[in-house]
Design brief:
alpha+beta, Jelly Rolls, Arc Repressor Mutant, subunit A, five-stranded antiparallel β-sheet, 8 strands, 11 helices, single chain
Length: about 300
């Protein structure tokens, strides 16, 4: 699973790259590129790994990812099932401040936007209340041509700058700097092994062997790279999957069924991990979800 830095080729006559894709799943290996990336997830669910942090994603989410920061949108396991009919849709913009647009961002009038991007290397998720607005502007950039592209790009960046003060960074500052290629490869292998096997019985020894390290050395390495212990990281991945299954999956009425489906070996361990990650029990989580849905439905009733 060798990962190499991406080199994005700008289309002829373009100073930036935009794309709108429909695929079975997102590209599954951790990678990085010199461009800032703004992505709107139109359809799909999974876990976004950025630097040393992970974030669940779902349809409607919008993310700004800093230049040269390792990242991967890891689709949930069902998207890799050839029998199913899952697919992802996404619209993305890739922006290189040192490329063809360097002249624009060197203008004095662009100082604030240049500083905003340079200070946003950790990236951030657009807060939910602004996601639809940003997605609409991003899509308009993709669909525009000529000078309209630049005008709408500036509009997009201005709006992102305005809301950035209420957004939380996607990764730590130290991780927004360059890392060695060998470290990227090793970490990519570890993360992919965990993501491919988290719903099976997976132990510390299993992952340490995959990394060609002793368990003690692996624990130190993993904690340094992610800020979490292996068990904490694994539980968060499993609970993220469990939340979706509890509400929308075929096992939504069976908490124990979901617990074993995502990789826990006992209901007690599942309940303990769920409360640690989510802040409430699985039953309370389900009840709160249905309560919100009922309230929203009643608000739509008019007499």
């Amino acid at each position: 699973m060798k990962v190499l830095p991406f080199t994005l080729l700008m289309p002829d006559g373009k100073s930036m790259m935009t794309e709108r894709v429909v695929l079975p799943h997102f590209y599954q290996h951790m990678h990085r590129h010199s461009e800032y990336q703004i992505t709107w997830v139109e359809q799909g669910e999974g876990t976004l790994l950025v630097g040393n942090k992970m974030h669940p994603f779902r349809a409607g989410d919008v993310f700004l990812i800093g230049a040269n920061v390792p990242h991967v949108f890891k689709s949930n396991h069902e998207y890799f099932n050839t029998v199913g009919h899952h697919q992802i849709m996404a619209c993305s913009l890739y922006l290189n401040l040192s490329g063809k647009l360097s002249g624009l961002f060197n203008l004095p009038e662009m100082d604030r936007l240049s500083s905003f991007l340079n200070n946003s290397k950790e990236g951030f998720q657009v807060p939910n209340q602004y996601a639809d607005e940003i997605a609409t502007i991003l899509l308009s950039v993709h669909e525009s041509s000529g000078v309209e592209v630049v005008i709408k790009l500036i509009s997009l960046l201005v709006r992102l700058q305005e809301i950035s003060s209420v957004a939380l960074p996607l990764c730590s500052h130290v991780y927004a700097s360059d890392l060695s290629r060998n470290e990227d490869v090793k970490f990519d292998n570890i993360i992919n092994y965990i993501m491919d096997n988290y719903n099976n019985h997976i132990t510390l020894d299993d992952v340490a062997n995959e990394a060609y390290m002793t368990p003690q050395a692996f624990c130190r390495y993993f904690k340094k790279r992610t800020g979490n212990t292996f068990v904490t990281f694994l539980n968060e991945i499993r609970i993220n999957d469990a939340c979706k299954s509890l509400l929308t999956g075929k096992h939504k009425d069976s908490i124990s069924g979901v617990a074993y489906q995502v990789g826990f070996n006992s209901l007690t361990n599942f309940n303990r991990a769920f409360k640690s990650v989510i802040g409430q029990s699985p039953k309370a989580y389900i009840n709160a979800y249905h309560y919100v849905r009922q309230v929203r439905s009643s608000d739509c009733i008019t007499i």
